[in-house]
Design brief:
By secondary structure, the protein is α+β, with helices and mostly antiparallel strands. It is 38% helix and 26% strand.
Length: 76
């Protein structure tokens, strides 16, 4: 949250005018949409997820590609 990051569709960056907020950018209907969230809420979320799955262990802990495929195929 100290500098812009993001691979793929979701990007996170500091709010340009406030240290208390972060900017989230993701595509909606093929166009980028900008949202803002309280930095404290994002900090809490990241801390909680890192307790469950330590950084760098995501691939070992979760099969995200398989989960996405199941979710996308579930509605068919």
């Amino acid at each position: 949250m100290a500098e812009p990051v993001g691979d793929g569709d979701v990007r996170v960056a500091p709010h340009p005018d406030s240290d208390d907020w972060v900017r989230l950018e993701l595509p909606i209907d093929g166009r980028p949409a900008e949202f803002y969230a309280a930095r404290s809420a994002i900090d809490e979320f990241v801390d909680a997820t890192c307790l469950l799955v330590p950084s760098g262990r995501e691939a070992a802990e979760l099969n995200l590609d398989g989960m996405i495929a199941r979710l996308l195929g579930a509605g068919r």
